[in-house]
Amino acid sequence: MSVRIELNNIDLSYGTTRVIKQVSLVIEPGEFFAFLGPSGCGKSTLLRLIAGFEQCQQGDVLIDGRRVNDLPPWQREVGMVFQNYALWPHMTIRRNVAFGLEERRLPKEEINRRVDAALERVGLLDYAERRPNQLSGGQQQRVALARTLAIEPKVLLLDEPLSNLDAKLRIHMRQELLALQRELDLTTIFVTHDQEEANTTSDRIAVLEDGVVQQVGAPMALYDRPDNLFVAQFLGSANVVRGQVSECDGRPCFVSEGGLELPLPDDLGNPNRVQALVFRPQNLLRCDENDPAALFAGEVKLREFLGNIVRYEIEVQSERLLLDELYGRGLAPASPGERIGLSIDPRDLRPMTNA
Amino acid sequence: MSVARHPGQSLLFWLIALFLLSFLVIPVVQVFFVAFVDVNSGGFTLVNFLDFFRSSLFRESFYNSFYVAAMSVLVASAIALPLAYFTTRFEFKGSVIIQSLGFVPLIMPPFVGAVAMQLLFGENGSINLLLDEYLGFTVPFMKGLNGVIFVQSIHYFPFILINLSASLNNIDRSMEESAQNLGSYGMRLFRRIVFPLAMPGYVAGASLVFLKVFDDLGTPLLLNVNNMLAPQAYLRISSIGIDDPMGYVIAVILVVFSLFAMWIASLALRGKDYSMIQKGGGGLAKRRMRPWEKVIAYAIVLLILLLVLSPHIGLTLLSFGTIWSYSVLPDGFTTEHYAEVFRETPEYMLNTLLYASLAATLDIILGTAIAWLVLRSKLRLRHWLDYIAMAALAVPGLVLGIGYLRSFLGVNIPFGDRPLATWWVMLVIALAIRRLPYALRACNSALHQVSRALEEAGENLGASRMRTIWRVTVPLMAGGILAGFVTSFATAAVELSATLMLVSTESDAPLSYGIYVFMQSAAGRGPGAALGMVAVLIVATGTYLSHRIIEKSRRERSFERV
User: Fold this and answer.
1) Which candidate in B178, B277, B286 is best for mutational testing of the A interface (most A CBs within 10 A)?
2) CA-to-CA distance for B216 and B213, rounded, in angstroms?
3) How far apart are CA A43 and CA A221, in angstroms?
4) Which H helix or E strand runs over B112?
5) Interface size between A and B, measured as CB pairs under 8 A
6) Cα angle B128, B130, B135; round to 5
7) How far lies B205's CA from each of B55, B99, B162, B266, in Å?
8) Distance between CA B427 and CA A90 in Å, rounded?
9) If phi over 0 gives left and psi between -120 and 50 gives alpha, with beta otherwise, what is residue B289?
10) B47-54 and B56-89 are packed helices; what angle lies between their axes, rounded to 10 degrees?
11) For B187-231, how does the pLDDT look when each residue is reduced to its tens digit (9 = 90+)?
């Protein structure tokens, strides 16, 4: 029932500015897929292209195997929830939700039935006769969703749907969105600049930057095995140590520009092409300076207490490294100025060839 | 308590309140009073209104005023709608022309060009002479009420254009896109989404046009159309006398209709603050015109432009023409009319400069003071100053003039034996009251932009309240205040209706009165037109300056933020 979306070699420019560069993606039927990237990366443009509000100069957009490049927006059967919800202020909630059904010239009873069902689904049936400006942000968001779902679209497009909500509501809404998507088994694309949102909801994420897809994959896979520095740093914090593969005490190792010596990861690939190692702050382990397990030692420069974790900034040789520790576990917190020993499991190091 | 803490504020408040009471509230109440009071018994009565509606002339005048105002709205809409459509839907170079059309009614009030329009479009005017000669028919553009409708609508359509364009531009693109996304397009989309969203702006503009036309005295008088309400009121008061209740009844009707039009506008706007624009998205999607569309669009814009400029063209021709009668163009050209007005009646211009600058000065002082009291003080009744000052919008100049004549009847000017009501100072005050709402708005928005924190910083660094106002607040407001001054000045310079009521001697009369007097006779048209050109020049310079000032202060402000 649910449909597949394919983007093949999409190229899109505004005048002379190329905003989408050779993008190819396949979104599987029923998948919750996220376009993730900083503002201006082209993620919204790509979404609007699927909805029919942008025209690409090259490439094909396929929905359910059918090329839709030349279909106007109103014939695409693609439901979109706009960032500002785009509820029409001159219509009641009921009229807003009924709009798409009226455009389809459905019989009155069916329209009423489906509007009620859609509002029921988002829990706002009691608000049907109100105007959009009488509703809170979260309620407006639900109405926008109900309005889109009422037409039973083949695809659901969400353009930063949570960005106008406060933090608590955002968490609640994203869980609701996901539950709804699973229930309807509806192919969904979600545009966001917030990695947490993408991670928590999506089956797969496409990370975009500068109009190019940097990497596609499941959230954990992207986090663990970023293909490049942009992805590594955009998804969570990362320590990036630039340098090259060399030899320390007769064994191969990685020597950084700052003089730091690190063990080599297992899946190194071609050692000559490695230009940096990347690892997560929580994978760096703290021990006593004189502990034999210590690979190197450093001085705590900064300590930030973030609640569940404590983040240290540690100077090692002339590198600065981040270290995250769960608060209240293990060693007593270190203070700035203190010297500590550090170690890391080679399996947690990720080589980069294109730093 | 607050009185004890801020004696200065309270004093200022009461001074302004006294001024507004004396020169706005009491005169208007006086007019209502006379209209509802029996001349003989002095008791409350509706008999004056009954008399009014018993007279066939008044019934006809009432009907005509209503008809002319409604038709002007209709014709003005017919001009404004295509223009608004072009600018908001297409990438259209002509948009620049269309936008500058918005200033036309500010630059030249309709009565100034009315006679010139008669010569261009009248029964024996240029256009009809040409039509008759080449096509064998004529169009009664200027016949009777048609003339008033024609002149008013080409002057006032920009009010609709500006308001409508503003609300069209305020529609976020996503409003339209979400409708497309749900399967709507074309005319249906326009009818169901775009049109209703633009409606409040249209109604606001249309009611403004209605109000302006309904109240206007000068244009019908100059076109010699007397069977309308405002001319009837003027003629009754000036011929029968100040005691005749009919003038007051008409004044009450004018005020009531003004209030009605303003009420309609506020209804249209209430709860419809469709401020929809979110992030950089911007207004509706525009597309490029196809070549044939471009041809049609330019043709329409050009035609409207010609129409809008025709009063200016006509006035120019008239002011330089020797004799212009039964011919397409004047027989010859001369600068004699200009020489005449500068030689023989320079007082019109000098008086105008004096009155308008005094009135504008008064306006910005009052405007700044009221804005400051409303936004910064905590006096309990402060909002009333704002309400009362803004209520002047609903008082036509004619009504204010009648009110002054009545209220100050029998009072002589201080240390003199002339009647107070027709003293030129009263005219200045009337002009100031008439323009106060606009000046107040300018001052209000200027003060709004001065953050309280900037003043607090001044006080924190040791400047007293007064010193802070003088050194921080006023300089930051300067741009807005100056713009308010120039606008007040420019519009006060061409106010006619209050002037007609209050001027008693020609030596005290301003430009607008001079134009009116000259235009009465065929021989005076040339000099009248020359005076008109001077007026246009003054107003155009003023309008241009105020725009420059606003632009400049806006630029400086945006610079400050960086």
Assistant:
1) B178
2) 5
3) 20
4) helix B110-121
5) 75
6) 95
7) 33, 15, 8, 11
8) 46
9) beta
10) 80
11) 888 888 888 888 888 888 898 899 889 988 888 988 888 899 889
Please tell me which of the candidates A73, A133, A147 has its beta carbon nearest to residue B180.
A73
Kindly determine whether residue B185 and residue A72, on different chains, have CB atoms separated by under 8 Å.
yes
What pTM value is reported for the model?
A: 0.78
**What contacts A46, CB < 8 A, 6 or more positions away?**
A7, A10, A20, A23, A35, A191, A208
* Chain segment B270-322, per-residue pLDDT in tens: 755 555 544 444 567 777 777 888 888 888 888 888 888 888 888 888 888 87
Question: For B182, which of A72, A90, A99 is closest by C-beta distance?
Answer: A99
Residue listed under structure tokens 């001009």: B79
Helix, strand, or coil (residue A10): strand
Chain B residues contacting A via beta carbons under 8 Å: 172, 174-175, 177-185, 188, 192-193, 196-197, 199, 271-272, 274, 276, 278-279
Are the CB atoms for B513 and B498 separated by under 8 Å? Answer: no
Name B365's Cβ contacts closer than 8 Å, sequence gap at least 6. none
Residues 6+ apart with CB under 8 A from A58: A9, A10, A11, A12
- The CA distance from B274 to the nearest CA of chain A, in Å, is 7
How many other CB atoms sit within 10 Å of the CB of residue B37?
Answer: 17
B177 and B131 Cβ atoms separated by less than 8 Å:
no
A225-247: burial string, b at 16+ Cβ within 10 Å, e else:
ebbbbbbbebbbebbbbebebee
Confidence band of B105 (pLDDT split at 50, 70, 90): low
pLDDT, tens digit, 9 for 90 and up, residues A280-306 = 999 999 998 888 888 889 999 999 999
Tokens found for residue A237: 């914090």
List the structure tokens of B72: 């002007």
Instruction: Write down the residue that tokens 């529609």 correspond to.
Output: B171
| Residue of A351, A121, A87, A94 lying closest to A240 (CA atoms) | A351
* Other CB atoms within 10 Å distance of the CB of residue B233: 29
Using alpha carbons only, give the angle B513, B516, B521 rounded to the nearest 5 degrees: 140
Rounded CA-CA distance B502/B437 in Å is: 21
A79 neighbourhood in chain B, CB within 8 Å: 181-182
CATH architecture of B55-333: Orthogonal Bundle (1.10)
CA neighbor of B359 nearest in space, from B299, B452, B428: B428
Q: For residue B193, how many C-alpha atoms fall within 13 Å in the half-sphere facing its CB? A: 30
Among A202, A189, A216, smallest CA distance to A49 is for: A189
